[in-house]
Amino acid sequence: MPLPITDPALPFFADHHRELAPAAAAWATVHLAQQPQIEDVDASCRALARQLGAAGWLQWCVPPANEEGKTPPLDARAICLLRETFAWHSSLADFVFAMQGLGAGAISLFGDAAQRARYLLGVASGELLAAFALSEPGAGSDAAALACRATRLADGSWQLDGEKTWVSNGGIADFYIVFARTEEEEEEEEAPERSSAGISAFIVDADSPGLAVAERILTLSPHPLARLEFSACQVPASQLLGSPGEGFRIAMATLDMFRISVAAAALGLARRAAHEALRHVQERRMFGQRLADMQITQAKLADMATAIDAAALLTYRAAWQRDQGGTKMQTTRTAAMAKLFATEEAQRVIDAAVQLFGGRGITQGEVVEALYRDIRALRIYEGASEVQKLVIARETLQAFKDSGNLP
Ligand code: COS
């Protein structure tokens, strides 16, 4: 039977992806359900993390070290196939998977041996919940404007002061990847207020003294989200991720990787909406015919199907390119294109599905009603659509300058 997600027979994929996709689909069919209303989101997320860990899926976000102790690179196509599958079945399961990936991704990509040993096994099993804390009330799209400060103390440890907001998994995470300014005080006097230099990344345990969950944030599609306050928060020297000053690059490189997977999640949500709509239009009768027989419906279905296919091709092109070890310019640009297009088009596809359902489409308890709420955040988080356009334009101009051609 064909899978409900992107066909793994496409030339972007390798043999192991062709085995992974049906295995994930079979598992998800049995274990996950799109739940329009979730009673206790925190408890559901914890349970889903353990479930995804026990089944081995989280290992794809946290590749185990090989015999030489080296961690293999993240497999972008596998992560995308899994997110597309999980999003189709349960947007909360996709969220949990993605957060383990984004939080642990920074450690997998930039952590030292001790940091990997301390955190990654727990993330892979779902026992430890991860989070990524970059945005601040005054620094969302403009991440380089962040103001959270890390000061090095005499004993080499760090003290964090400031706040972070819209932190997914905030309030339930066991650790946070936190980005803060670490320039020395005297440099800071002259430093510009916005600079990507002098930002460093830290792994901050949730129980660190001086870290408080100041507020839980309620959203359109409920998931754990919080504002955090750091007040003389004590962080040992061993928790610095990478080198001092490397934080912005760590944030951007981690986002490059996971932005592709946001596109895959959007694709899964769009495919689910199209699936529901296709079923519905064959059953629903009006004006003496099935909705599917009306040309006005067919035009909608054609647009939905074309948008989904185009989004799939951009998404897996970006993932394939990354797995091939494409240059930063290539991977940054194609990841941004995939996220922009797949999330914007998924919004349109889901809206069209709601429209085809008519009154039922906006009724609580309907799958398309939940999808309509679920998709909205994806056009905003991990780089809003406007940020993706900035990135695409910048990389395209640069490539044209370098080579004289449109890349
Ligand atoms: N990979 C590796 N390094 C990167 C990078 C990437 N994708 N993008 C930028 N960098 C590096 C640059 O090479 C540069 O280093 P040097 O100063 O050594 O040359 C440095 O980071 C600064 O880059 P840049 O000048 O591009 O920074 P900008 O502030 O102009 O970046 C955007 C602007 C909008 C692209 C950036 O702020 C961004 O992505 N914002 C969105 C943030 C976000 O996604 N927030 C959501 C948080 S998670 S839910």
Automatic annotation (TrEMBL):
Family the UniProt entry places it in: Belongs to the acyl-CoA dehydrogenase family.
Presence of keyword Magnesium: no
The protein's name in its UniProt record: Acyl-CoA dehydrogenase
Cofactor(s) recorded in Swiss-Prot or TrEMBL: FAD
PANTHER family the UniProt entry points to: ACYL-COA DEHYDROGENASE (PTHR43884), BLR3437 PROTEIN (PTHR43884:SF22)
Taxonomy of the source species: Bacteria, Pseudomonadati, Pseudomonadota, Betaproteobacteria, Nitrosomonadales
Tree of life domain: Bacteria
UniProtKB keywords: FAD, Flavoprotein, Oxidoreductase
GO MF annotation, one: acyl-CoA dehydrogenase activity
PROSITE patterns from the UniProt entry: ACYL_COA_DH_1
Name of a matching Pfam family: Acyl-CoA_dh_M
Organism (species): Sterolibacterium denitrificans
Keyword Flavoprotein: yes
